[in-house]
Amino acid sequence: MNKKVKRKWLKALRTLIKDGGYRQGQGRLCTIPNDPDSEESHKTDYSFCCLGVLQNLYHEEKGTEFDPDHFPDGQQSPEVNEWADLNSENGKDIHIGDNFLGLPEYEAYSDHLAEMNDMGANFRTIANWIEKNL
Question: Are 14 and 105 in contact (CB under 8 A)?
């Protein structure tokens, strides 16, 4: 993973909301306030999954607008993966352990992070995982 992008991502995930950090959400890269399709539509601010934070950092750096509705299925855009250098062989798939036969099991980094996020891991826990594994 690109070291500069990784530092930005880790900092963003570890910054508290009261200090200007991101509000964490689940199920989508970004939940728009008052979005009728969202369970979090009653909240007054945008909320992001950990991958949405990375997507937003990309758009901030490029000076482009992040349109959450363009990625409703929660998939990371190829441009962001390229920018973050997560298209490389070791960035795509990660070893998550061994299966019941004792064979190594791999999963796409984005699937693993999305699952961590949506199963309730907070941004700090996710940042620690990213720091160690990507």
Answer: no
**Mean pLDDT within 69-96:** 70
Q: Does position 15 have pLDDT exceeding 60, yes or no?
A: yes
Distances (CA, A) of 29 to 44, 54, 97, 98, 103: 17, 9, 26, 29, 32
pTM: 0.81
DSSP string covering 57-116, please?
HHHHHHT----GGG-TT-PPPHHHHHHTT-SSHHHHEEEEEE-TTS-EEEEEHHHHHHHH
Whether residue 99 is predicted with pLDDT greater than 70 in this model: the reply is no
Single-letter residue type at 25: G
Query: What are the beta bridge partners of residue 62?
Result: none
* Structural domain range at position 101: 3-133
Band of pLDDT at residue 38, cut at 50, 70 and 90:
low
Structural domains of the chain, count: 1
